[in-house]
Write a structure and sequence with these properties.
mainly alpha, Rna Polymerase Sigma Factor, Chain: A, Arc Repressor Mutant, subunit A, 2 domains, 10 helices, rod-shaped
Length: about 180
C-alpha cells in the first residue's frame, strides 16, 4: 500500500503533540516513544477507517490513549522479574523423555512374574500396606514383602538403574536446564 505523501506529512505533523501526551501518560521517554510508534503503526494499519474531513489529531490521540490502556492492563498482569529468577524457575524437561521412560517402565513391568507385578502395583501404586495385600492375596505378609522386593530388584536390572541420578532427564538435559536456571 502506497501512502499518500500529504497524509504522511499530516500524520507526522502531529508527532510532537502525541509525544508530549504519551510522555504525560507513561512518565518515561522510552515508553512514550514506543507508544507513539505503536500509535502510528495502528493508525496506518487502520487508515481506511479514518473519515476525511474529521479531526485527525483527535483520532490519533484516541488511538494513543487506547493503546496506552491496553499496555497498562497487560503490565498489571506481568510479574516484575528484572533478574530473571522467576523465569528461570519455569524450566521444564521435554515431555518426550517422560513418555519414553514410561514406555520402558511398562515393558519392564510386563516382564515381571504375575505375582510380583501384582504385589508391586498394590503396594507401590495403590499405596496398600503389605498386611492389606497379604489379606487380599491370601498369603503371608513375608511373602508379599519378598515379592515386592524381588519385583523392585528386577525392575532395577531391567531398566539399568544405577542410582537416583538415573531418574528424570539425562545428564545433558540436566546440564542445559541447570545453565538456564538462576
Amino acid at each position: 500500500m502506497e501512502l499518500n505523501p500529504a497524509i504522511r506529512d499530516e500524520l507526522l505533523a502531529h508527532a510532537p503533540g502525541l509525544r508530549r501526551f504519551a510522555l504525560s501518560l507513561c512518565g518515561t521517554i522510552d515508553r512514550a516513544e514506543d507508544l507513539v510508534q505503536d500509535t502510528f503503526l495502528q493508525a496506518l494499519t487502520h487508515l481506511d477507517s479514518f473519515q476525511p474531513g474529521t479531526n485527525l489529531a483527535a483520532w490519533l490521540v484516541t488511538i494513543l490513549r487506547n493503546r496506552f490502556r491496553d499496555q497498562y492492563r497487560r503490565r498489571q498482569r506481568e510479574v516484575d522479574d528484572g533478574d530473571g529468577y522467576y523465569a528461570g524457575t519455569l524450566n521444564t524437561q521435554p515431555e518426550q523423555f517422560g513418555r519414553i521412560e514410561l514406555a520402558e517402565f511398562r515393558t519392564a513391568l510386563a516382564k515381571l512374574p504375575a505375582m510380583q507385578r501384582q504385589a508391586l502395583i498394590l503396594v507401590g501404586a495403590l499405596d496398600l500396606s503389605c498386611d492389606e495385600v497379604a489379606v487380599r492375596s491370601g498369603c503371608a505378609v513375608g511373602t508379599v514383602k519378598s515379592r515386592v522386593h524381588r519385583a523392585r530388584s528386577r525392575l532395577v536390572e531391567l531398566l539399568a538403574i544405577d542410582g537416583p541420578d538415573d531418574f528424570g532427564p539425562d545428564r545433558v538435559t540436566r546440564a542445559v536446564i541447570h545453565k538456564q536456571g538462576p
